[in-house]
């Protein structure tokens, strides 16, 4: 049976190869381990091999794992849809939020971020493929939302996140990421340093088109459990 250590080594090697293939600096793309539905023991195993950033979709599940792993110096990222009644615990217990898609949510996160914690790192989710089933701000509306969120006092706007419609063709995978990267560059805001996109199936395309953070789950932890 393949171990987490072996998967971690394989994923890291693939990521480094993707960077080299397009002439990017080794290590410039961060790995976010998506640990949703996985037990705290799996997170601890990946941590022992050097992984420090973990992404969770489900709030209650994440809070249980955070308590169990409180002795570990983990940077927790919330990457799932955000309901208004969940913003307070998210603001209190995470270092990053990748799925901010409207001003109301950003305002609540800012208001509810404790003063004793550093500003909450946030990315704005962009619905880059225009899918009705997905959350996210339209690309044309991104500049206005950036301007509004950047003014909120307890947030640090870091960049954007996107999950485009799946494509098997490499060129088709590259196109939405290229459009999003260009749009972020056009904003010309130095603080926007994070392009959170790319998963196992389109990692090479994401790295080629400027991703600074890729989200990997199954390739690192194995098939997901249905247990929540």
From TrEMBL:
InterPro entries: Ala_racemase_N, PLP-binding_barrel, PyrdxlP_homeostasis. Its cofactor is pyridoxal 5'-phosphate. Keywords: Pyridoxal phosphate. SUPFAM superfamilies: PLP-binding barrel. CDD domains: PLPDE_III_Yggs_like. The modification N6-(pyridoxal phosphate)lysine is found at residue 36. The keyword DNA-binding does not apply. The keyword Cell division does not apply. Coiled coil: none annotated. GO terms for molecular function: pyridoxal phosphate binding. Residues 25-224 form the Alanine racemase N-terminal domain. Pyridoxal 5'-phosphate (PLP)-binding protein, which is involved in PLP homeostasis. NCBIfam families: YggS family pyridoxal phosphate-dependent enzyme. Belongs to the pyridoxal phosphate-binding protein YggS/PROSC family. HAMAP family: PLP_homeostasis. This is Pyridoxal phosphate homeostasis protein. It comes from Methylomonas koyamae.
